[in-house]
Structures are given as C-alpha cells and as structure tokens.
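Methods — Computational structure assignment.
A single polypeptide chain was analysed. Its primary sequence is given first, followed by the predicted tertiary structure written as structure tokens.
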Amino acid sequence: MRVIDAKEIVEAVAKLCMDANYYLPEDVKKALEEAREREDNQIARQVLDEIIENYKIAEREKLPICQDCGTSVFLIELGQDVRIENGYLYDAINEGVRKGYSEGYLRKSMVYDPVIDRKNTGDNTPAVIHLDLVPGDKIKITFCPKGGGSENMSAIKMLSAADGIEGVKRFVIETVRKAGGNPCPPIIVGVGIGGTFEKAAFLAKKAVLRRPLGKHNEDERFARLEDELLEEINKLGIGPMGFGGKTTALAVHIETFPVHIAMMPVAVNINCHAARQKTVII
C-alpha cells in the first residue's frame, strides 16, 4: 500500500489548472498549424493565424488561452493500492482548483444554483470529477478546463438499433451543423455510442479528452467511421470561427460500450479549438 499526502494532490492540481490554461497541448498545436497550411480560404487562413498567435502569446506571457477558463473537469484513475492521508481526495482536488484559479488569475465561472440564484462560487469550485478505480499504486489526474460555449453545443439522442450507422452519422453531422460557429471551430468532436443515457455522454467526454488528435479507434470499423464523419463535417463549410473554409473539425473520436438490445444511445461532446487539457501522475 502506497501512502500519498492530500497536500501533494492539492499542489499538483493547482499547477494543472494553471498549466492547462496557459499551454495548448502539442497535438492540438500541430493540428491547427496543419489546418492552416491546407486552408485556401483567405479569411479562414487569417483566423487560424490569429488562433496560432494567440496560443503563442499565452505560452510566452503565461496568460489564459481563452477568457473562459471553463468548468474544472477531472478524469481520475486511482490505483487500488493507494491510500490518501491527511484529507479526502475530492476535497484535495477542489482545494487545488481553488488555489490554482486564484494564484493563476483565471476566470471563475461556476455558480451555486444552476437555475434560480446564479451566484458565482468565487473560486471555480466545485469541480466535476470522474473517478475510475484501477490496478496499481499511482494516481493519474487529467484536467480539462471545459469552456461553456462548446459544451453548450453538445447533445445526446436515444436512437434505436434500427437507426443503424446511418442514423448515428445523421445525428452527429446535424449536431455539428446546428452548432455552426458557436463552439469556436475548428472543433474536436467526441462521440459516445452505447451503454445507457449517462454512459454515452461520459464516453463522448472521454473521446475528446483521453486520445491524442489523429489517433484512431482501435476497431477498424469505427476508425473508418471517424474518417467518414470528419470528411462530412468539414464539407459543411462552417470553417474557423464560423467564417467559412475547409476546417470545421480537427478530429472526430468515437468511443463505444456494449448496449441493451432495445437501445442505441449516441452522445456528441464538442471541444473548441482551445482544446486544453493536462495530465499528471502522482
């Protein structure tokens, strides 16, 4: 049994919050730069130039890539041979968010009550935490500051088995078409298929967070579907920030799970071009 002090988690999370907001992942930067080279629409090229310059300024000046520093979303893999002392895991994560968003001068966007009294919590807590218990004696923490604009454009639909693969494609493409320029394209499209209502939504979230851009689903059938969807989405012509062009999406990632014979839930989670995330292993 390995013992980890809760204070170590607090410090690691605080740094994650700042670093994820300041530094765009290398795979996302590469995809944006490649999209710029492919683009022949003058306005789209100019928009991509500005997006690229923006993330370079953020890196250099240690400033947020986007003014929306997001909901604090965590995917945590907790080794079953880990014991946390001097605190509770969720409390440590929220304290780390509180510390990171304060010390990093990051915008706090969370409100206590989602409907009636939308008063800001003042520290970007509580975090949204997804916890998996895994073998081992380490804690893997992936943090994503998930922007509200792209999250608002996400959707879920309970299809039937009879809708088949064409039904899935129609729903995904229509969701992106309806989103238009609202989620700040070029976007990353996560698709979750199977499980139950809530499982499909979580699969879609995992699809935009856990896989490097361009890495396909290991099942060749779904890898082909990813390519087909990406091609069709980019034919929509929405383009960078909705101004038209070849690149509406940088990638489509699909995650699946076994499902009941009577169901076929499909969820689409959209991430904007500021596809921020950072991982640490303790």
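Note: The two ends are 14 Å apart (CA to CA).
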